[in-house]
Amino acid sequence: MKKLFGILMFLILVNTPRLSFAQEKLNLTYYPTTQEIQVMPGETKSFAVVFVNNEDVPVVGTVAKKDFLILNSDGIPTLVENPSSSSRYSAVQWVTLPYESATIAAKDQLVVYAKVIVPPDALPGGHYVAVYFQNSNEPPTSSSRGPNTAISNKYAALVLFHVPGEFKEQADVKKFTARSFSEYGPITLDTQIFNSGYLHIKPMGRIQIYNLLGKKVEDIALKEKNIFPEAAVNYQNLIGQKWMVGRYRAELNATFADKKLPLSAVVEFWVFPWRVTLAVVLALIIIILIAKSLIEKTVVKEAALEKEVEREKSEIEKLKEELKKRE
User: Fold this and answer.
1) Res. 23: pLDDT tops 60
2) Residue 109 half-sphere exposure, CB side, CA atoms within 13 Å?
């Protein structure tokens, strides 16, 4: 009887729908991950974010919004708990969400239709907000600290508002470097661009490589990345092939913003496979010395043979003279 009761309980638990209480990060996706929206002061617009539940069970969670910032060059957003600390770029007070909590059915999606109401006195430039879904049963991240919170335990879609007008647009190449000397290629070229303006930018351009004769040997497109205000982005490119010889020059030529403001930098570096070259030179020296030794031995032998022939000729002549005297 007890065995039968246990089997029945097992079947009930397996077949009863249940909410997810998993401690591991859920298999949820969302789109668009990033959307850029141009808004005018005093304007009202709508936008949507879709959260997709790929789990086999429903998921209960909160739907919320927070300002976000990019605090370092890794490009990972950080949610701002205190909007006043990012008032220049804040948009959290502009956005209205239809609800604060929701349940996403198994293998289903949740469409969040949000509204942005831009104040008439909105500052020109960029304003940034994250609309996110968080599993109610997922523990808070251990990296939360201070006025900001890491975004790792939230499914956050980033919304980038652009308010037109007059504002500072400035960016600089903080790093454009390669090892001054390398034995082999390809060469690692490190680039860092810092945005000191008031709007996110996406620089576009190319990196061109020239050899010692000024001939272009490689042309690489700069990867397009958003660089947020007061943040930097790192780029890394592998250039050239394994076998490279001589001095090379790398040039960065890019532009950013609607005004096509310029970004440029130059770096020079040497590539020379000195160990292989040394081995080849030593091998040539050894070959030359061996050849010289063989040639010298051959010359000595030939000289000795010539002397022997001359001696024998001389002896023959003497014999001839003696024979003539005897006759």
Assistant:
1) no
2) 11
